[in-house]
Amino acid sequence: MKDRGADVAIVGAGITGLMAARALARTGTEVVVLEKSPVVGGRVTTRRFGDAVFDLGVQNFTARSDRFRACVEDWVATGICVPWYTREGSSGETVYYRGVPTMGEMVSHLAEGLDLHCGALVTAAVREEKDWFLQVEGDAEVRARTLVLTAPAVQSRAILDAGGYPCPPGISQALHRVGYVRTLTVLAQLDGPSGLPAPGILEPAGAEPVAWVADNQLKGISPVPCLTIHSGPEFAQRFFDEPEERWSGHLLNAVRPYLRADVVQVHAHRWRYAFREEGIGGQYLADSQARLWFAGDAFIDKRVEGAALSGLAAADSILSALGAR
């Protein structure tokens, strides 16, 4: 990418960064979004291998708050998500939504119209006078008055440390408290229907070694039978650095009793920051004097809704600081 400037630079194009960017851009604020991966979405992403289509990370989401429910209703009307299934709980029926046609394509739709740069790894953030200078791998530089970091806390800290920026003690201590859980994932193509019951989501008792299984064909996103299998955190912690052949076999063996088909192709993936274990609380953190905001799933809630609401709340705060409200 080329050097450029903006009112606000957002690091991370997961659901938090995209929601913040959309809210800011709607007011005419000049926003640039930098994402180190080749695609947007973070843990909301999709993979394809031949005819098999897998939602790799987040499988679904709920809308419990009025603000996020309004967003989801708009997405349903636009055709980028639909209700997948419902569950009864102590507080009534909860609707679980999925992306259309996939979770990955849903977030790609949310990114449309944004000044977004994928494959842009921010290596350092330097504060000089009243501006932030972001160093992007490949010798590009982005200059912005305001910086929003939405990556996992450990990665956000590393970006600031590399630029020599001393976070205020309260913010630094809060960021250091955030812990993350690892997950190992197997993507398995089958030679026939899996045999899992509709709607295609299975959560075996005990959550170890398998936390859940999703049937992407029953879900309605894959034309051929294929499964996304996520490990439990204890299994992932034990096997994370082991060869894929070792732990993928364990997960497949744990799932086979539920299947009526054989596995014909396997792919594996490691999630170092699958979801946060201990959060900060609140909606975001801000060093307003330095025009620096932190948002993401470390706040509010670790689910999609919490990440989205954190991005929206950070955008509200930034607009207030910019005098745009």
Q: How many helix segments?
A: 9
- Please identify which CATH superfamily of the largest domain we are dealing with: FAD/NAD(P)-binding domain
For the termini, the CA-CA separation is 32 Å
Radius of gyration: 20 Å
Mean pLDDT: 95
CATH structural class of the largest domain: Alpha Beta
Order of helices and strands: EHEEEHEEHEEEEHHEEEHEHHEEEH
- Number of β-strand runs: 17
Write a short abstract of this structure.
The chain is built from 9 helices and 17 strands.
List the helices and strands and how they pair.
Elements: E1 4-11, H1 15-25, E2 31-35, E3 46-49, E4 52-55, H2 66-78, E5 81-89, E6 92-99, H3 103-111, E7 115-118, E8 122-128, E9 131-136, E10 140-149, H4 153-162, H5 169-177, E11 179-190, E12 201-202, E13 210-215, H6 216-219, E14 226-231, H7 233-239, H8 244-255, E15 263-278, E16 285-287, E17 292-294, H9 304-322
Parallel strand pairs: 1-2, 1-10, 2-7, 10-17
Antiparallel strand pairs: 3-4, 5-6, 8-9, 9-10, 11-14, 11-15, 12-13, 13-14, 16-17
Helix pairs in contact: 1-9
Pfam families: Amino_oxidase (PF01593), NAD_binding_8 (PF13450)
Domain Amine oxidase: 102-319
Organism: Ruficoccus amylovorans
Features of the shown structure:
five-stranded antiparallel β-sheet, 325 residues, FAD-dependent oxidoreductase, Amino_oxidase, Polyamine Oxidase, Chain A, domain 2, FAD/NAD(P)-binding domain, FAD/NAD-bd_sf, alpha+beta, single chain, oxidoreductase activity
